[in-house]
Amino acid sequence: MTPGLSPLISIVIPTRDRPEFAALALQALTRQSFTDFEVIVSDNAIRRPFQPDSRLFDGVRFRYLRPPKPVWMTDHWEFAVSHARGCYVGVLGDKSVLVPDALERVAAEIMKGSPALASPLSARPQTRVLRVSRHERRSSICWRLT
User: Which CATH superfamily is domain 9-144 in?
Assistant: First the structure.
């Protein structure tokens, strides 16, 4: 990510009372081969909050947020996405882990102008929401934790 410029991709991880899963999803994002992205972990915890590592969460590329009070899931996602600065925004479930070249592959599709990949986000016309779904195991970019 270039300092002072918006990242190409924002990855938003909304979580609630599953700090161990959020930590695994975050760890996988630190291994991405692509670097023009930011990560927002938004914690809506009631009982078990996520404990951000101050060495990683610099407030620029990796940010940790909490809504002012616990909110419904849809409101939480809206809160989290509203803080994204990227040209493209993807919401990653806290039980999902990206493979190391996932964002590189997504960026390549963005550069091709793939209409199946992104669609406009109505509230912010300059931003597009990533819609990546690959179900074949060989070409998958995301693994679900169970």
Answer: Spore Coat Polysaccharide Biosynthesis Protein SpsA; Chain A (3.90.550.10)
Distance CA 71, CA 44 (A): 7
CB atoms within 10 A of CB 139: 8
Gyration radius of the chain's alpha carbons: 15
Stated pTM of the model: 0.78
Give the tens place of pLDDT for each residue, 57-113.
777 789 999 999 999 999 999 999 999 998 888 888 888 888 888 899 888 888 887
Could you tell me the two tokens for 103? 């964002």
Q: How far is CA 45 from CA 15, 79, 82, in A?
A: 7, 14, 18
Torsion on CA atoms 24, 53, 88, 138, rounded to nearest 10: -20
Domain map (residue ranges) of the chain = 9-144
How many C-beta atoms surround the C-beta of residue 101 within 10 A? 14
Q: Which amino acid is at 129?
A: V
Say whether pLDDT at 135 is over 50. Answer: no
